[in-house]
Amino acid sequence: MSRALVAIRGVSQRFGADGGAVTALESIDLEIPNGQFVSVVGPSGCGKSTLLSLVAGLRLPSSGTVLCDGEPMAAPMPRKVGMIFQEANLLPWLSAVDNVAFPLKLRHVAKAERLAAARRMLELTGLAGFEDRLPHQLSGGMKQRVSIARGLVQNPAVLLMDEPFASLDEQTRMVLGDELLRIWSETRKTVIFVTHSLNEAVYLADRVIVLSARPGRVVDDVDVDLTRPRSFAMTAGERFGILKDRIWQHIKSAERR
Amino acid sequence: MTWPERHLRLCQAMLYVAILAAWEILPRTGLLPRLFVPPLSEALGALVTDRREYLGSLPTTFGEILASYAIVCGGGILLGQLVGSSATARRMLLPVLRSAYAVPLVVLYPVMMVWFGLGSQSKIAFASIYAFVPTMLTAVAGVAALSPALGETARAFGATRAQQILYISLPASLPSIVAALRLGGALVIVGVIVAQMLGAADGLGFLITRHRTLLNSPGVYAGIVLVLLITGMHEILLRRLERRVAAYRQGA
């Protein structure tokens, strides 16, 4: 394993003024090596999304540091960290290819170059032939593929995914999960994947981080020792069940409180 | 079973023809007194005979409409964008604006005449005040409905504040801007014509009132036909514009 690409050190996050302050995250320490696929799960409101927005540089932690490739994330660094949201959040007036090229446009990359890069990404995410469609002409799953292509277009080392499949139906989620694994194995990104679905968390990841209820702390760090490539049959296997159960015990006790 | 588009279009065209035909025929049969509604051909005849007078009233009318349009849409939409993008400003100003909306502003016109005289200024002032608040409220509603998610996404991809406005807020609010233009324009036309009817020395509304006092019904209706043409043209232009910005609508 190479050195940590993403290092989260002593990170806490508080919201609000002193009186009504809420601690969302408390003393999080995580080292994520290059190329690892990490899922983050935890009870509702445990600060999973907050953690991602800290790694994305969308906000600064109240204390502690987030390093990406040795550099502190003080502001969004889209060339290092690509973000994929729960909703595809595509610009409705831009075609698929223009949406994917949008992050490059923000950096004033020449038009021909950024469109070529966007086309490659759409091909990678299985959307060749749909370049000129507007978002409303695409299905939910296709929109999320466009969003993934957009997250990948700057070739960032880290891909942050905030419940990217949560608003899709079960079949589409499974197909997109396999697609994501294929893309991951082709591009070797470091992925931090926040999800509510324990199945998804175990099925996709090398490692599952379990957060506690608010204030979010790391209560377990599960090594997913299933072979790759993953297959649907594994989800019915004994090892899969044991891993899932171990995670569920943490979440169940937290949700009951 | 739904009708094909062209059948609907045909029926609509037939409806218009029927209305125009009724306008021509009913007064001639005596079912409608000619003093109240003269046949369409007589109104058009008056329009042709007195074309100098009517055409001569158009520069003033259009000038007043365009000046008010610029004030209402420029100011109203700009202010609407500003107020709409701040939740605090919305909470503070919207109740005030809504109550201003409820005032029958036409009572202000005599005051406008005292302030600005009988010329174009009083028409522009009245039409602008008349249309300002509804136009601004439309713009506010459009901006307030924008989802913050797109801005957040752009920020994650490194957009600067200026880029967020240029590439996200502005295009995303285009549909509400056009909706505000459409409403503002329609109200401005009403405002100018009404003001001209209530007290003016020139303009289409003035002509309508003058012919009415002379009991010259064809002359009155000739003016009405011209007003209908102006509002119709405005409506057609704005609908086209609306179709062109339809892709900018959110949640599509």
Major sheet of chain B, described briefly?
none
The stretches of 5 or more residues of chain A where confidence is low (pLDDT under 50) are none
Task: Report the sheet with the most strands of chain A, covering strand number, pairing sense and barrel closure.
Answer: 6 strands, mixed
Structural class given helices, strands, pairing of chain A? Answer: alpha/beta
> How many strands appear in the DSSP assignment of chain B?
0
Low-confidence stretches of chain B: none
Helical stretch tally of chain B: 10
Which overall shape of chain B is indicated by the principal axes computed on the Cα atoms?
A: globular
Question: How would you portray this structure in words?
Answer:
- Chain A has helices at residues 48-55, 96-106, 111-124, 140-152, 170-187, 198-204, 238-256, and strands spanning 4-15, 22-33, 37-41, 63-68, 71-72, 81-84, 158-162, 190-194, 207-211, 218-223.
- In chain A, 35% of the residues lie in helices and 24% in strands.
- Chain A is of the alpha/beta class.
- In chain A, the strands form 2 sheets. In chain A, strands 6-7-8-3-9-10 form a 6-stranded mixed β-sheet, sandwiched between helices. Chain A has a 4-stranded antiparallel β-sheet with strand order 2-1-4-5, covered by helices on one side.
- Chain B is mainly α.
- Chain B has helices spanning 5-29, 40-49, 51-84, 87-102, 109-116, 120-144, 148-156, 161-198, 204-213, 217-244.
- Chain B is globular, with a radius of gyration of 22 Å.
- Chain B starts with a helix and ends in an 8-residue tail after the last helix.
- At the A-B interface, α2 of A face α7 and α8 of B.
Topology:
The complex is a heterodimer of chains A (257) and B (252).
Chain A: E1 4-15, E2 22-33, E3 37-41, H1 48-55, E4 63-68, E5 71-72, E6 81-84, H2 96-106, H3 111-124, H4 140-152, E7 158-162, H5 170-187, E8 190-194, H6 198-204, E9 207-211, E10 218-223, H7 238-256
Parallel strand pairs in A: 3-8, 3-9, 6-7, 7-8
Antiparallel strand pairs in A: 1-2, 1-4, 4-5, 9-10
Helix pairs in contact in A: 2-3, 2-4, 3-4, 6-7
Chain B: H1 5-29, H2 40-49, H3 51-84, H4 87-102, H5 109-116, H6 120-144, H7 148-156, H8 161-198, H9 204-213, H10 217-244
Helix pairs in contact in B: 2-10, 3-6, 3-8, 4-6, 5-6, 6-8, 7-8, 8-9, 8-10, 9-10
